[in-house]
Amino acid sequence: MKGSTFFKTASLLSPLLFSSAQAQESFTHAGTGITFLRQQVDESQTTGGYEFGYALPGTPTGSNDEYIGYIRGAVHSGGKGWSGVSHGGGMPNSLLLVAYPNGDSVGTRFVFAGGYVAPNDYTGNATLTQFAHTVTDTYFEVIYRCQWCWIWNQNGATGQQLPTEEVQVIGWAQHMDSPPSAGQSWRLHNNGQSQFGIQPANARKTEYDDWVAKYTNGTTPTPTPSDGPTPTPTPTAPTSCVGTPAPTGSYDYIVVGAGAAGIPVADKLSESGKSVLLIEKGPPSLGRFGGTMKPDWLEGTDLTRFDVPGLCNQIWVDSAGVACSDIDQMAGCVLGGGAAVNAALWWNPTPHDWDYSWPTGWRAADMKAATDRTFKRIPGTQVPSMDGIRYKPEGFNVLATALRADGWKEISPNEVPDQKNRTFADPPYMYENGQRQGPLGSYLVTAMERKNFKLWMNTAVRRIIRDGGKATGVELDGGDGGYCGTADLNPGGRVIVSAGVFGSTKLLFRSGIGPKDQLQTVQNSVQDGPSFINETEWIDLPVGKNLNDHVNTDLVIKHPNVSFYDFYEAWSDPIPNDREMYLEKRSGILAQSAPNIGPMFWEYIPGADGIQRAIQYQSRVEPSPPATDNTSMTISQYLGTGTVSRGALSINGALNMFVSTPPYLQDKEDLAAVITSIKHLQQVISKVPGIVWEVPAANVTVEDFVNSIPKTPARRRSNHWIGSSKIGTDSGLNGGTSVVDLNTQVYGTENIHVVDASLFPGHIVTNPTSYIVVVAEHSAAKILALGSGSQAPGKQAGAVRL
Ligand SMILES: Cc1cc2nc3c(=O)[nH]c(=O)nc-3n(C[C@H](O)[C@H](O)[C@H](O)COP(=O)(O)OP(=O)(O)OC[C@H]3O[C@@H](n4cnc5c(N)ncnc54)[C@H](O)[C@@H]3O)c2cc1C
Ligand code: HEM
């Protein structure tokens, strides 16, 4: 169903987006006489510059699904380069058009990606007719008519962004090399990417039909027909599982997803002596578990890219085989999930966070024992290098000087977790011995030693097999060398869904648990429709709602003392001394997270609505657009605890997950907190005269700056997704907001649990991994205390309990 994925762009952008810095202009192309509404992206964001413009029919006709486009892209040495446009704004789940110089002509390709992975050719009926092109040594331009381009359908992955709202969000990306030849894979753009908002009303042109007629040899233009702008995909039968038959056997607990939560919960359950099967869809990550992905300089060692702290940012450069391909956000689909690919920031939870939004039994006092257990196993360190030296601390020192001068206090954050107001610190990480550890290096190690514990990798779980509210096992979906068939529960056994916010939501939807419209999408899908659980067995719960993420606002400053360390270059060509220090002593800058993080600092902002909102600032030595200086620092402002805004997740017909409602700044006090805190930071920064603000620029007000950033995941995300299967007593079965009860058991079921970031009722101050592990510890105790799942109706979550 096309309409199900409509992206409400107008609500994502404020009119202030069109402040002088970002406004589009009317531009008449000299060669064709066509007038476009044009956005220019300057050299500071992409070498050689980029331009996109469009003209729309004077009045919407037919499916309102076409435009005349203008792309001007950079040509690099050898006549190479490509320039892309996203018709939905984001890269995943959107029709992407790539244009490129090809000798004297300009080539174009439509492509499509389900996640932040290499796209495939688009198979829908978007149609491009070239009107004109130019290729020079430094730029190319192409003018084209694009039909069936605002609505797309890639084998059931439907979406649209019709020019009917006040604002459309357009994405762009550029590469300095040519597109891949046939059969080769696309490579990540290396010349910038971002988004801008554009107002379609200003692009409507009464001359549109004349231009079309002129450039299609006098043909009278026919508007794109309204009765089928994109064909439904050729109906195909469901694909069968690829893999080997699963070993026979049954288990007391089946945990789906070996991420930050799945690993500890599986370990703790197996401690009881019960049999536990942990199923992970991705391949091994750390070397100790059989991981193999590594740069040349790690060949011959037992280390992989995941072990080495300084390589953690590689996921943004080369995500092939690591990032999930079925969700529209960045996430690790490998053993360890996010805990294998993240920057390893590791915080003793702020007690107020539990007390503020968690229910009875999950408040700070209740979580203390689980917190102590977690930190005993993963203490964290503020100095990851084994020689005890903090390398390249200039960025920290510059900002710390300003913070101290303004009266902020330096703390050891894991010793005083409650001190998050006007405090700062060099952050702690879940590294040990100069390598990534966290849940992988602790809980998984002890679990693997137990005979009653089994781990299957490269095996996705398709759905939970259930009879009413009682799960009997899971159906497997294979993978690279993984298993097909089923894994069964022992009588009284339980399934624990720990597949992350996106993965758990998807798995519940495919198991017939979630809002009716989402289950209908699964029911209508080619892959799952024919075998989907009967509608009479659906469990209607608000799965996917209550979605939240830290609201990110990137600020940039520079100071002459600061200097950038090229962690990206360290992938292929590390500085020899740094490489040797790491390999021989697990010391040096490569034992620290890329790209040189710190300081982190915090404050609470009281809102006019009586809510205290928490702000965390996470600094790193790296410029962000439009700044390019090697002396720049990006300071990411995260708005967390207290946010009122919420979003939602949806599934499309190709069974890909996407953020259908972004959770950013819908509430005016959320917005006010962001603005007020940036003003405080300006005051802090003014204490050190040598610091220059780059973003926002001196002539832009904080209000205009904050309002100018689209409220889309691509521009606002922090990758700290939470909340899609909220824990609480107000059962969603009765119109409440909660998906699981206080024992993490899904309402309306007897033995299905969710244990991961999905449970969080509201956001927190810091990065979430440590909280998620603590939640897993606590959940395991609750689940064990429940004993066997029972058929007795009285044991169903949501049923009356006396
Ligand atoms: C790039 C990046 C950097 C980050 N940096 C930090 C940081 O420094 N500190 C911090 O605290 N947080 C950080 N985070 C966030 C943190 O990593 C996540 O919040 C956390 O990992 C979520 O834990 P989880 O258990 O809910 O899910 P995940 O850790 O995502 O685990 C889910 C697992 O389930 C598997 N899975 C999914 N579907 C299926 C299926 N159907 N069958 C079988 N397996 C399945 C996935 O492959 C994955 O391994 C970062 C996140 C990203 C993406
Ligand atoms: C192997 C190929 C590719 C990979 C791995 C990849 C990966 C990524 C990643 C990780 C981002 C987010 C960057 C960030 O937030 O810092 C991104 C953004 C983007 N990409 Fe790609 N990309 C690829 C190819 C393409 C192609 C061919 C296009 C064609 C138009 C494209 C268009 C975009 C756009 C418009 C954005 C900005 C919007 C957004 O973040 O969603 N990408 N890409």
Provide tags for this entry.
binds flavin-adenine dinucleotide, 16 helices, binds protoporphyrin IX containing FE, 7-stranded mixed sheet, globular, alpha+beta, disordered N terminus, 802 residues
The residue-averaged pLDDT reads 92
Largest sheet, in brief, is:
8 strands, mixed
* Distinct small-molecule ligands in the complex: flavin-adenine dinucleotide, protoporphyrin IX containing FE
Low-confidence blocks of residues? 1-21, 790-794, 798-802
Strand proportion, as a percent range, falls in: 15-25%
Number of helices: 16
Class based on secondary structure composition and strand pairing: alpha+beta
Instruction: Note the quaternary state here.
Output: single chain
What is the β-strand count?
34
Any idea what the shape is?
A: globular
**DSSP helix fraction:** 10-25%
Q: In angstroms, what separates the terminal alpha carbons?
A: 44 Å
Rg is: 26 Å
Domain Glucose-methanol-choline oxidoreductase N-terminal: 328-551
Protein name: Cellobiose dehydrogenase-like protein
Family: Belongs to the GMC oxidoreductase family.
Domain Glucose-methanol-choline oxidoreductase C-terminal: 645-776
